[in-house]
Amino acid sequence: MSVHQKKNGTWFVHYRVSGEKNPRQEYFGVGDEAKKKAQIRDAEIKLQKASGQRPVPSNGEYLDTVAQAYVTDRKLAGASAKWLAEISWLLNKFVLPELTKAPIDDIRYPDVIAFVNRQWGDRALATRQRYLGYLKAIFRFAVEHGYAKNNPLAKWKKVREPKRDMRLTVEDLGKIMRHAAPHLRWAIEVEWELGTRPGPSELFRIRWDDVDFAQCIVHVRGTKTHEANRVIPILPEFRDRLAATKAAMGGEYVVSYKGEPVKRLNKALQRAAERAGIGYPVRMYDIRHLYASVMLANGSDLAAVSKILGHSTIATTQEHYYHVLKGEMGRAIASRPKLDFD
């Protein structure tokens, strides 16, 4: 039991309760008055313990207690180590120092939005919405498990993100490959042959054991949708390139750097694009988009492309790529009967 002060000036009491694994903290704000309240509360807790009573929070639960319980709950539910590391970093570095100045039930929607704007107002919309989604889940957990009465983000919903202007062409991709480092050039080639979701969810997860050289297929063990775990056929020429690369590189993963799995490539891709004189931003995802667009523009079956991409439904593929379906709009217009004006 003791009185402490956070770096942001907030005074709090730290104490343990018999039978609870984690210690409790009660917060009292900043300033001399808050310090006095914390000291009084510390004395109350010591008196309660001395008389054999179980201390009860005086002014409601705080977000750090709930956050700790939430992370533990997600860990037991099988959340990935990467996700747990991200949410813990987000909470400890940004959220808890700001949103533990008052009990959870005193936190209002404007408080959360103002905090998000201060911390991440200059970040991409997708990033801000992902972080708000994390906070909404934590507040919902607090309500469901009796830590709080209300969720300040209960009515918050994600807004539809504007579609990114995809400008990459086959010609420009060729230029980028000519200026790319060897490991990036190989990753681009694999992406162009398989059309996977770039990054650790699919492209960087492919192991040599996932390549069936005899059947000319690659098993992509995706997790994003129920169709993401799929088998993609490959051409014999690419099968031979895979075999030669495996013999030269070894290791466990198809896309690697100095024998180690690759974690990110966008910066290397940006540098290669700059050297190639490409005057617009390029991401690894743009290669997947170009991969699908070219196949559909050349008359490939929509259902087949949807299956290759690992989309959950054909409707998803159609929504994103209908504009490149070769001649579809023209055929639709030409299908109308002509009116007889005579």
Please write out the topology.
Elements (H helix, E strand, L loop, with lengths): L1 E4 L5 E5 L8 E4 L4 H19 L12 H14 L4 H19 L9 H12 L4 H20 L25 H9 L3 H13 L16 E2 L4 E5 L7 E5 L2 H14 L6 E2 L2 E2 L4 H10 L8 H14 L4 H8 L4 H8 L6 H7 L8
Antiparallel strand pairs: 1-2, 2-3, 4-5, 5-6, 7-8
Index terms:
3 domains; DNA polymerase, domain 1; hpI Integrase, Chain A; single chain; mainly alpha; three-stranded antiparallel beta sheet; 342 residues; 8% strand
Any overview of this molecule?
The chain has 342 residues and is mainly α. The protein contains 13 helices and 8 strands. Strand 1 and strand 2 form a beta hairpin. Helix 2 runs antiparallel to helix 3, helix 6 crosses helix 9 and helix 7 runs parallel beside helix 10. The chain is elongated and about 85 Å long.
Query: Structural class, from helix and strand content?
Result: mainly alpha
| Structural Rg | 28 Å
Helix proportion: 40-55%
| CATH architectural arrangement of the largest domain | Orthogonal Bundle
The rounded distance between the terminal residues' Cα atoms is 97 Å
Give the domain tally: 3
Query: What fold name stands as the CATH topology of the largest domain?
Result: hpI Integrase, Chain A
Uncertain spans, ≥5 residues at pLDDT below 50? Answer: none
Overall mean pLDDT? 88
User: In what order do the strands lie side by side in the largest sheet?
Assistant: 1-2-3
Strand residue content: 5-15%
By DSSP (H or I, 4+ residues per run), the number of helices equals 13
General form: elongated
**CATH homologous superfamily annotation of the largest domain:** Intergrase catalytic core
Major sheet attributes: 3 strands, antiparallel
Count of DSSP strands: 8
